[in-house]
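Notebook, p. 212. Picked up where the previous page left off. The plan for this session was modest: take the two constructs that came back from the sequencing core last week, fold each one, and keep the raw output in the notebook itself so nobody has to go hunting through shared drives later. Recording the first one now, exactly as returned: residue sequence, then the structure token string.
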Amino acid sequence: MTQPNGIHPPYENIDDPIDYSDIEAKYQVSFEEGFDAVVVIDNLPIVDPSRKDKLLQVINKHLKKCGSPKPDNVFMPWDDAKNQSKGYAFFEFSSGDEANICLSTVHGSHFDKSHQFLVNRFTDIEKFAALDETYVKPIIDEYKPKEHLRSWLADPQGRDQYVTYRDLAVTVFWYGKPNVSEVVLERDVWTELYCQWSPQGTYLTTIHRQGVQLWGGSSWSPITRVVHPFIKLVAFSPNENYLVTWSPEPITVGSVTGAGDKRQATQFTEDDEGNQIAVWDIKTGQLLRTFLPTSPRLAEEDPAANAGAEKRRQILWPALKWSGDDKYVARVTPGSQISVYELPGMGLVDKKSLKIEGVIDFEWAPIGEKDREVGEKQSSKTASKKPRENILAYWTPEMESQPARVSLMAFPSRTVLRVKNLINVFDAKFYWQSGGDFLCVRIDRHSKTKKTVFSSLEIFRVREKDFPVEIIETKSTVLDISWEPTSDRFVMISSTDPNLGTAPGSGITIRTDVGFYGPDKSKGDFKLFKNLTGKNTNIVRWSPRGRHVVLTTMGNSNHFALEFWDLDFTIDDKKLPADRDPGASIRLLSPPGAEHYGITDLEWDPSGRYVASSASVWRHSIENGFAIWDWRGVELEKHIIDKFKQFLWRPRPRSLLSKGRQEEILRNLASYSRVFDEEDAAEETSASKELVSQRKRLVDEWNAWRARVEAQREAEGIVVPVAPSAGTSEDKEEVQEWVEELIETIEEVLD
């Protein structure tokens, strides 16, 4: 006899003693009971029979993130008297988890301007119908204020923080004075891959097999968790509102990560399957959209680059580029279009991409202080002009009879602001000045023999009328350009070395030139102020406060010197004359021999006072560790640490003080310095008092112990010998003095 659930009862026949009940219980198929997978969506438009199917299609589009229910599992009550719907419907999903996702993501979202989805569980409807109508005074939980995510900025000593990752341990430190580091927090196995600060230092990111965890606050509690299995790369939007993650493993629907109680279902749906890039809202942890990665365009002129392209499968990173105000994010499909999405909905702006034939790359203009000031005045309704639109800069190569082009476009109006035609272009790269005032485009061209590459700079003046362009011609290959964060000066690294292009790690030293450029006050054009020839520099790092810059070489086993330069060198801090020669003010500060063997990373602290150089075990295993230097190039401390991986200063958000207030503080810096000097002196005095007090306590303890021992000896009748006095003969000592005198020196040559 078979039971209703399809399971045979255990055998009870005496002739057959085998009992299969344990096997049947192990492999029993359980059927889901109840209505946990059913939800009720209310506040729907009331439609007639002709519009019913269309309404259900639109609703299903909104439910795709949850796992759209089958048509047989949808029931819409009907008003037969009026021959129209009643404004709500029942939807049955495949599991209770999908119903919960629908409740959290769809509830409260807008169907149109007049209707907003109201989602409830079907089981809750019955519970609410049987609700006791007797009023019971609610129990109000005690208010618990949340931690301030930027509490570290309120440090009374104004110290900065940094994080180190060595072996399995991640440690966060306070750094105030040289050789004075205070441990804030240390955890083992805090991350499985690497650490990363958010752009403004609010969050510390740790990478795990299950996804990403953001930490913050004074107690370093978990803030946001993102479930994206096997991710490798993470990127933040400029204002820390959104997060982008990439995993080499394609997304699979219904994947679950973790084990035991820590198992977590992902938010991915069938539409996300196969994608590898995901965009998340940091505040809510919700998935906004997923994408497939795009591959960089391989140069047609370089057969070696095309060989084995399928094996490399490189991706462009960052795969998504953000506007400075976090309103838009864009991605390029090389050769065809730029797709711009509007946040937070992640929908295509105007429902169409920018169709640009042959487009290779693009960059957004950063938001400068001038733009922020206009925006703040606009919000207070006292602005005389509208804030500038976001600007996209992109370039297209030569195609048939059309020359290569660099274009500037305002967004979202899609107005083309400036187009510059170019010829014989091999490659182009954008370098925006931090305030968005200038755009430098590096143009690379092949020589006639196709064996070498020479570059030129096209500098767009974005704040001026008609966007005039200044051209700087060079006879060398430009390797890197770096703008000063607070000014319109930049450093350019170039080279004419025939070994240029040699694979890194080959041991061949590439000779480079380092040029310091800036605007000529008399003409207004950009001018070369100082040129350093015969260098091997390939890395430039500006101080976040400007003025100071560090030059070094990475990836070379023979050269690892650090050069600290001051672009406004003065004696006794005297004000520089307006007609001075800018090149004469560029001075080398660091002493000879300043170097860090095996350097792999270099980073300034947010205050511009210190520089940290480090050697990571990810690149090599020789003398791993880090060193901290002051802005003059004096090494303050150095630590050799086995299995050292990372050193990262914690970034700071931009100052809330106005530009005028900051200038006032700089003018009165001497008065503030006296206050700090007094505090330092008081701290040193306090330390001296503690040292004197400790020594006095030790002397008192010694005297007390000696008195106690002498009293004990006297009680026992032990005679302590007395040392002879200074007047006895035993205290006398004879001293012999030897005097050597050189009388004559004779030099004789021996055959």
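Okay, moving on. Second construct, recorded in the same format:
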Amino acid sequence: MWQVNETIAFDGKPYRVLFTENSYFYWIVLDENKGLPERIYFDECNVWIDEGRVEKIPDPYAYLQAESWELGSSNYLESQKHYALIKPIIDGEGAFNKSTRAKRISHAIAVSDKSKSTIYRLVRRYWQRGQIKNALLPDYKNSGAAGKRRNFTNTKAGRPRIYGIGKGEAVNENIRKQFRIICDKYLMNDKGYSIRYAYIKFGKAYKLKYPDVAEHEMPTLRQFQYFYKTEYTKSTQIIKQTPKGEYNKDIRPLHGTATEQALGPGSRYEIDATIADIYLVDDNDPNKVIGRPTIYMVIDVFSRIVAGFYIGFDNASFPVAMKALISSFSSKVDICKKYGIDISDEQWPCIGIPDVLLADRGELMSHQASYLVNGIKVRLESAPPRRGDAKGIVERSFGSFQAKFKPYMPGVVSGNKVKKHGEKDYRVEAAVAKSDFFEIILYSILAHNLNKPMEKYDRAPDMPESIPSIPIELWRWGLQHRTGSLRTVDTDIAKILLLPREKVTVSELGVKLWGVVYTAKEVIQAGWMHRSTEVTRPKNLYAAYDLGSVNHIYLFPETGKNTFWVCDISTRSREFRDMTWYQVWERQAVQKQVSAEAKYQYSAVERDFDDLLEKKIKKAKNNRKASTLSNAQKIKDIKGNKQQIREQERKELAIKPNRPKQEKPAQIVQLKGIEENYELPNFIPELFDDEDDN
């Protein structure tokens, strides 16, 4: 009925479910300093539910799932110490029995220096805050300046020198920068350089930069060694300084075996991917072949029930594997409804996180894997390379699911792509639409979970004969009779923290990821966008992003912590709004190509302009040499010359009416065939004739 770690309210009072059995469960009050677990029977709780006295509430300590710490920090060491102290007390159902718990606490007092009240406080905090290691983190995590490096500007840290001369040089940020450059160049590789050799190289670089510094005022070898040991963890040193082949063979950590027996439902999940043996077509255009889809399956080892899945066209990778894993954390009702299938959570009850997850190495080698381990307490196991049999259960499931459609559907992969004469290419025979294939796989999963009897299922001796070997029946029986059970998780936080991350830059425009600018109210409130040279903006920040949407990213403002700010795309990058990241990258590639071609065209224009400029400069120099006026006369004539040019310019630019031109006279047509002259008489000769001639 209730899941472990679920938070509920009874008469307005918050409780957490700690342990469930067939007919009862234990819970504890969340907000009491002296509360202890109480046993509640399901029959009694059902009456309270009918009376409306019990309701689900959000987990007030869900944020602890996202907390992280640095190895070696005081918080980490203290929480590990406290967990080791109370672990014998909280194991098993005996922790909830008063007399058994009292004996365990007495033993813990005897073997430690802690008082009875302190141990009770730690046990109560562990129960109230979600039964994870992060529950034991102290509440004063934000006090002081934990983790911040101290800068000594004038005085060198440590005790004064007894021998030698001088006081030494304090290590500031500039010196640390030089230390880091030398360490990265000479020590973070597999060439075998010693720390002494690297320090000699540092000394040469330091003297080159500060030639007048005295030898006794230079940073010492001990300071260099201290920086190296504190800045680079031992694990990092081993990874960087060991040849890759030798590291993979002899040095790398060994993971737990994948053949460990599952204790019950949710105890152990396997996840793997395959490319379906069929070519699909687009839903809207059957002539458009879109290729083969990728299928991820998450299967519970105990019951063989499919707990989560992914069907799509992304390549198999960690981000895609996390989509399948998140589907196993949450309800599948909405996914089924999308394809017209109505189910309830009871029909697909796999909601929560497992104890162990087995996957390929490539799907676990990421920063998100640390969240699974530390944030929500999932133990990760990786299969050896090229060892598909390590995940035999999920591997076999791919074959059984595909066997249902391969003999009948067109476009199924068969044989080689290169066909003999007269044979057809299976790719051109593709005809199954994408949505139809997704629906087929979903129906196959439901049929497997709810109805398929497994003839070769390895039944445990304590399983009754009346229980059929059907995944859903095995799941329900296991929840009642085995210790394995799922634990709840805040899926909203998990979805963000399991996304891939990338380094971002912060400027006065906002947060930039791959050329796309984002803003958030927290970024503005932090003052990072103020246009001032006095503003100090953080560096080396990372943001999580979803490949399916460029509209939002999730910025992690503190290095090493999983708290995040939601950033929205800025209007400066509005051209990319509502795109996927693949579309953004394609658009940016086209823009870069166009820009490169435009630069080629501009180069020729630039050269022509330069030629013109040189000619004009040469002409100006010749004009200067041909001048006969004195400098004083030139200056004196400037005002008059300018006025003369101004008047000339005004006349040239004056608006003149644009009248139509006069039309030519019409042609005269003779009516009677006699040529007549209708022109005006010309009296000019008569005016100049002499009178004597008349």
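Notes on construct two before I forget. The chain is about 35% helix and 15% strand.
Flagging for discussion at group meeting.
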